[in-house]
Amino acid sequence: MKKWLLILLSIFFIIVIFKYRFSNYSISYKIDNFNVKTVYRNKRLYFEITDNDKVYNFDIYEKRSFKKTMISKIDILEDEKTKCIYPTINNYKTYPLCYYDGVYMDYNLIDSSILDIYKEETVELQKPSKDFTYYNNLEKNEYVALWNYKGYKVMNGNYYNNVELFKNDKYDNSLAYIIDNTIYMANNDEEHEYTKLTSLNLETLKSEVIELKHNIDFDSYIVGNVKNKLYIFDNKFSILYEIDVKKKKTTIIGNNEKGYVKYEDGKFVTCSKSLYKVDKFKINNSNSNYTYSSDGMYKSFNENNILNIKINNNENKIIKEKDNAIYYQYKDNFYKYEPLNGSRIIFYNYELTFNSNNTIFVYNK
């Protein structure tokens, strides 16, 4: 009897732990005149706050706690052109959510005295005198690599390292791809065809060589990856290669004799050669909770993509999105944007405007 009681208590305990530590939830509640909706899903909290004709929203990335997370207080900040609300959540940092001159806008972009106490002091940047300047604005768990024709400048925390991988300069870096913390690229010291991949681990700065045991023409492109497998299409010879970067094994999975396949909805399905040769098909493994538009940079949440929030005054090239951080390039500068702090410059490189295709890679530990 004691044994069965112990088993039942253990099962009950597991159910409680799962329900209050891991399960998703959605709740609606009211604070003063505001209607609030909170949704937790997959380590992400989404909040939507309705005030008469205005709807404000934001998100936070955190593991779930036993108690459901709720906004405890909402302050109103107003002047002639600006109406903002400031939500308070216990144990979380928040920021003003603003409607300015007819547009939902990041509070860091608004010049108003009502927002001064929430902003960090900014320093006007002058154009650097050096070809490259790193501004020490990365955390220890963030890594950024910049292609410099023979290797990379790898930035992390308060320092950066120059890592040389090849003997010869190569302007084009299109045959490079990042999987987790490692960049894989064609061996640039070979000509016309490459028989090796070179890898660089951004954490350890160690490089390795993967022998492909095939000759792949430089007229090829990287299709993408599925877990630890990298896919390259040789455009000259119409061959689709699968490279297991962990086992260092190369397999032909598509050619004129075998036919061709594409990865779709978690499995490989047959397809035409023209998908690779003409359409330049690529696997897209990114799952985003956001959408973006130009005319500056606007961000909307998938939960309510009618609301467009202006987060930048320029049209930028987004390199990576991680949680609610966005890493992007504008002219010769590279930035990180977060809603709590706005945009911070990571580095300047004097010719980034003219050569930004596959030159920047970001890894978050």
Annotate the secondary structure layout.
Layout: H1 2-21, E1 25-31, E2 34-41, E3 44-51, E4 54-61, E5 73-78, E6 82-88, E7 97-100, E8 103-106, E9 132-134, E10 142-147, E11 151-156, E12 159-164, E13 176-179, E14 182-186, E15 193-201, E16 207-217, E17 220-226, E18 229-234, E19 239-244, E20 249-254, E21 260-264, E22 267-271, H2 274-277, E23 290-293, E24 297-301, E25 304-312, E26 317-322, E27 325-330, E28 333-338, E29 342-349, E30 360-364
Parallel strand pairs: 8-25
Antiparallel strand pairs: 1-2, 2-3, 3-4, 5-6, 6-7, 7-8, 9-29, 10-11, 10-30, 11-12, 13-14, 14-15, 15-16, 17-18, 18-19, 19-20, 21-22, 23-24, 24-25, 26-27, 27-28, 28-29
Key attributes of the depicted protein:
365 residues, 7-stranded mixed beta sheet, 2 helices, single chain, mainly beta, 30 strands
Q: How would you sum up this structure, described in words?
A:
The chain contains two helices and 30 strands. It is mainly beta and 365 residues long. The chain has a seven-stranded mixed β-sheet, with no helix packed on it.
Oligomer: single chain
Counted beta strands: 30
What is the topology, as strand order, of the major beta sheet? 5-6-7-8-25-24-23
Shape: globular
Q: State which percent range the strand residues make up.
A: over 45%
Number of helical elements: 2
Instruction: Give me the Rg, rounded.
Output: 25 Å
- Class from helix and strand fractions: mainly beta
Distance between the termini: 48 Å
Question: Which residue ranges are poorly predicted, with pLDDT under 50 across at least 5 consecutive positions?
Answer: none
Amount of helix: under 10%
